Structure prediction request, 82 residues.
Amino acid sequence: MEHATAGTADRSLLKDIRDVVIDTSKPCKERMRAYIEQIGNPYCYLDDGVVVEIAYADNGVSLQERLTAYVSSIDEDFGNLR
Prediction:
């Protein structure tokens, strides 16, 4: 799988996630295989014409910790960030 980023990807080669169809009656491994086969590069694809790039930071902070911090930063009365 070629490493593509949102800035370097050839848009004509990227697959649109809206075109991916997964049979939810299949076992998990088969669904994952079907997804990869259809999307090509799961880290760089299109969503309604927008290039989406997925990357992970190796900083020791979990997604749950990030989401907890984000939710804690929202003003409950107005839904605004503090």
Notes: The mean pLDDT is 85. The chain is about 25% helix and 10% strand. Residues 14 and 45 are 5 Å apart (CA to CA).
